[in-house]
Give the backbone structure.
Amino acid sequence: MSVPASKKSNSAAKRRRSHIHVDPVNLGNCEKCKKPVRPHHACNSCGFYKGRDAIAQVAPKTHAHTHAAEETKTDA
Ligand SMILES: [Zn+2]
């Protein structure tokens, strides 16, 4: 295994690490619902992109059934 010829100075190490970072995400606002949206992406909340609904949004399922049967079991 090769080993560096000499210790890298603190300044050289910090200079190398000066490029190690994550760029902040560039966000715009959805034309329809005004929520933050990434460029060239359909809106996550309403599916709107380039003047039309690009993704059909499915309405959340309603919790229709009741828990009456389960309640009677716990009483017995
Ligand atoms: Zn939207």
User: Anything to note?
Assistant: The helical segments are 10-17, 68-75. Residues 30, 32-33, 35, 43, 45-46, 48 surround zinc ion (CB under 6 Å).
